[in-house]
Amino acid sequence: MSAIVNHQILLASRPEGEASTANFRLAQAPLPALAEGQVLVRHHYLSLDPYMRGRMNDSKSYAAPQPLGQVMGGGTVGEIVESRHPQFQPGDKVVGMGGWQEYSVVDAAQRGTLRKVDTTRIPLPAYLGAVGMPGVTAWYGLVKIIAPKAGETVLVSAASGAVGGAVGQLAKVRGCRAVGIAGGPDKCRYVTDELGFDACIDYRQYADAKALGKALQAACPDGIDGIFENVGGMVLDAAMLNANAFSRIALCGMISGYDGAPIPMAAPQLLLTNRMKLEGFIVSEHMDVWPEALNELGTLVATGKLKYRETVAQGIASAPEAFLGLLKGRNFGKQLVKLT
Ligand code: NDP
Q1: pTM metric for this prediction
Q2: How far is the CA of 158 from the centre of ligand 1 (A)?
Q3: What DSSP assignment string belongs to 135-189?
Q4: In this model, does residue 2 exceed pLDDT 70?
């Protein structure tokens, strides 16, 4: 047994409706001695992601429910502190799924559990954001589903976030008009002034889909060819009101319904009349594209052409509150927890 104490956040109970801090429990556990083939990782950052809300429910979904009483699952970046595997040395920086805890013991021999990363040109936490799962999500939905041509208009909701921010910048690289939807003037200013989108609409200024649709019409004078949807509800309805014939919707997320609110689609007939394609996707089911996507994302970040922002909570005990904030839009860019 090692003397190190590992602080962890467990799922204590399943939410009914809105999730709350009472659904989580702070715990601590000693670290076991390493077996042959194992490594000990000190986590530097934990990634908080909207999909974790779905896993807190005990309902059928693409991901198995998070078991009660166990450490919350989640992506982490960190450093090897002890190794009994020949391919990992103390000091190596790694990305993995270490969960909501300060340390993890990993069977490094198991393929895909840990990936060494180079932090000379890309900062370590970026491997949880723009050069990680959210970046690949943006890349997949844009490149493989929307497949935009230069000159087309791409609209993305939750545009200041980890996924949304990358979508618009990747669309600009491809010669498109990129328009964002985000909550509040600060986020919208960031989306246009820092990320280089052509326009950004603050959805909070509009009472319904019709009014938001009018604002989108002004921002998208040639209509919308690709909708990268992260939110659902009124935001998607407003986008569909401006969709061009043969436009595509990459249905990535519907965060406005994650706490259980109903999110009906107001006018599904537009899918037919506009001959639209709507495709939902889960990024982890497309591992074949990850190398190509990470290559482009890594190059763009390393050369300063892909920008991103992070909101960083401090310490494992702050993870539940930070996670609930993410579900309410209190984060500004990629939500992380710093664990060192
Ligand atoms: P973000 O960094 O974008 O954070 C979530 C944001 O959602 C909030 O900041 C908030 O921004 C926005 N939001 C909009 N409407 C609402 C609402 N009604 N309630 C709460 N928040 C709202 O998160 P990510 O970039 O990590 O994820 C973006 C989307 O992508 C999510 O829907 C997520 O589930 C999805 N996703 C899907 C994947 C897949 O494989 N399909 C993989 C990864 C993510 P604002 O203030 O602008 O409203």
Answers
A1: 0.97
A2: 6
A3: HHHHHIIIIIII-PPTT-EEEEESTTSHHHHHHHHHHHHTT-EEEEEESSHHHHH
A4: no
pLDDT at 62: 81
Question: Which long-range contacts (C-beta less than 8 Å, at least 24 apart) are formed by 253-257?
Answer: 253/50, 253/158, 253/163, 253/229, 254/229, 254/230, 255/50, 255/158, 255/230, 255/231, 255/327, 256/231, 256/232, 257/232, 257/233
Please report the pLDDT score of residue 71 as a whole number: 98
Whole-angstrom Cα distance, residue 154 to residue 176? Answer: 7
The CATH number of residue 185's host domain is 3.40.50.720
Q: Ligand 1 atom closest to Cα of 137?
A: 42
The finding on whether 135 has its CB within 6 A of some atom of ligand 1 is: no
In terms of domains, do 97 and 15 share one? yes
pLDDT, residue 64, reads 86
Write the CATH number for 73.
3.90.180.10
